[in-house]
Amino acid sequence: MADVILAAAIGLIWGSFIATLVLRWPAGRSVRGRSCCDACGQALGVRDLVPLLSALARRGRCRHCGAAIDPFHASVELGAATIGVVALAMVPGPAGWLWAVFGWLLLPLALLDARHLWLPDRLNALLAAVGLLFAGPMLEASLLDRWIGALAGGLALALLGWSYRRLRGGEGMGGGDPKLVAAIGCWIGWQALPLMLLLASLSGLVWALATQGKGDRPLAARRVPFGLFACIAAFAAVPLWLWLSGR
């Protein structure tokens, strides 16, 4: 129980940083320095920066100017806390902590792709490096298995994108998607990779069909945030693979 509470607390703190990152980085704003109100620019003190609690105490408004605080902050904080709670409640011990870290590193990539169709190389590289260095105990995948997963996943998505360009004469996949799948392979290895890709593909297809009539562009011309679905599928594939493999 203590691990679950600790994971929730870490998730809240990490989520606060991730929300700031996702809001500022695409706009070209620095994520360094003191946090400030987006409306009035006033620097925030310690009592304004306690995840969730500060916003609740101020009823979702800035203490200085009264402007509404973007609810995106609280949503991301809750999401990151939920990742930690789910991981440690379902998979106790080191494997659970690794699963939580996996989810926390996937979170900013999922949000950036959902909001901006952008998968930064630096975040993909961070995900890959941490996976190769530490992820072995999560699914008991050897370093060789994870290297194979990275190469197989990245090359498969790159080949798919290249084939689409040759056949259709346009871009069918963003350049960050193969890198993301390669980075995910660094965590789950080649054995669980097909499961992750299946889940991601099905999720993307369901989303595309569900939103088919909500835009003025035909389905074939719409851009699907595949990275978002890959991140969700990668996190979900961990307990599914543990169950399927009888571990």
Automatic annotation (TrEMBL):
Catalytic activity annotation:
Typically cleaves a -Gly-|-Phe- bond to release an N-terminal, basic peptide of 5-8 residues from type IV prepilin, and then N-methylates the new N-terminal amino group, the methyl donor being S-adenosyl-L-methionine
Q: Which InterPro entries match?
A: Peptidase_A24A_bac (IPR014032), Prepilin_IV_endopep_pep (IPR000045), Prepilin_pept_A24_N (IPR010627), Prepilin_peptidase/N-MTase (IPR050882)
Q: Which UniProt keywords apply?
A: Cell inner membrane, Cell membrane, Hydrolase, Membrane, Methyltransferase, Multifunctional enzyme, Protease, Transferase, Transmembrane, Transmembrane helix
Entry GO MF terms: aspartic-type endopeptidase activity; methyltransferase activity
Residue ranges of every copy of the Prepilin peptidase A24 N-terminal domain listed in the record: 10-88
Entry's Gene Ontology BP terms: methylation; signal peptide processing
Keyword flag Membrane: yes
Q: Can you name this protein?
A: Prepilin leader peptidase/N-methyltransferase
**Organism this protein belongs to:** Sphingopyxis granuli
